[in-house]
Task: structure prediction
Amino acid sequence: MPEVKLGLQDVVIANSEICSIDGERGILTYRGYDIKDLAEHSNFEEVVYLLWYGRLPRRTELQELTEQLAENRPISPDIIELLKRLPPPQHPMETLRTAVSALSLYDPEAEDMSLDANRRKAMRLTGQMGTIVAAFGRIRDGKEPVAPDPSLNFASNFLYMLSGEVPRPEIAHWFDVALILHADHSFNASTFAARVTASTMSDMHSAITSAIGTLKGPLHGGANEQVMKMLLEIHDPERVSDHLRGLLKRKTKVMGFGHRVYHTEDPRAFVLRKMSEELGRQTGQTKWFEMSLQIEQLMIEEKKINANVDFYSASAYYVMGIPIDLFPLVFAVSRISGWTAHVLEQYAANKLIRPLAEYIGPTNQKYVPIEQR
Ligand SMILES: CC(C)(COP(=O)(O)OP(=O)(O)OC[C@H]1O[C@@H](n2cnc3c(N)ncnc32)[C@H](O)[C@@H]1OP(=O)(O)O)[C@@H](O)C(=O)NCCC(=O)NCCS
Result:
């Protein structure tokens, strides 16, 4: 009998030149560049270029990509209308999934599978994702969407479209770092979903819609929202220990901890911890970081399980003023760059992704007519 690898754990299914993870040493690279180095020195637009084209851009190339991304931020008024008309979702990821799927109906190249057309679609989707999220965030609060400002960089513009105010440079800087950290993560569940869809030679919008549906789950992109709900529920730093021990006693998974690939600290959590601390200090809301630190220490002591990318991003986004239920959508605003890079890579050397299952159901059944059952 062939060995069954539940959850495809440890199964290597393709070669990829985009992203590497060393789960033993806690090292994540995009195209060979260490994520900590990129977080310190790069910016989101440059990382998008790196993911798509495989190398760091020259100055003019970066300028061109930055301008193109900014030019592609506006969305059709019909999509805004759709966002206004759709019923309130049970979770905002439903609306994002629907709106991104609808974008293809307004994209004249939706069915064009040439490399150039797919690159342009990657550009449009990356430019538009933040506009949809920000517009939704405002519409559901009864406010008019704010048009993108092409003079602002990707990070500042998103926060501006969401709140209506240009963010302070320190906040915009840290949000830019968060975007860099979330841009790609190899064959994670949502990227894999995008690649499975792309491997049927289905179009880019379909692949990204699959990815959004997959990111939505609390075991993936939905975890950061759950982390913040937990922090709000605990509320008082004095209650952290009792609350956490209660969760562990009931064998409830603590959101923001554990990882399929990392057996040591997630390098993104290392940077996000610093971000959460600094933003907490700058906004005068240090409590959430302090509680997070306590939880992390207890999880390491009690379970030897490290924080993942979703743990400290929760308190960081919260003090930036991002609504909690939009956290997973903000993940998508960044991860669209990695998803599209992977879809392009899949198209470039496609092989239909189609695994097997070991059948363990009944055999040799004889059909029984309905009146005899
Ligand atoms: C990310 C995750 C899905 C990885 O799952 P996985 O590789 O299938 O590993 P498992 O869920 O089987 O966990 C292995 C063991 O660690 C424990 N564990 C893993 N994550 C845990 C967590 N967050 N809290 C408590 N225990 C956890 C499991 O209970 C299991 O213990 P057991 O072997 O005694 O049953 C899992 O760690 C998780 O659910 N984390 C919380 C959600 C989250 O933060 N997701 C974002 C990921 S970036």
Notes: The CA atoms of residues 232 and 339 lie 31 Å apart.
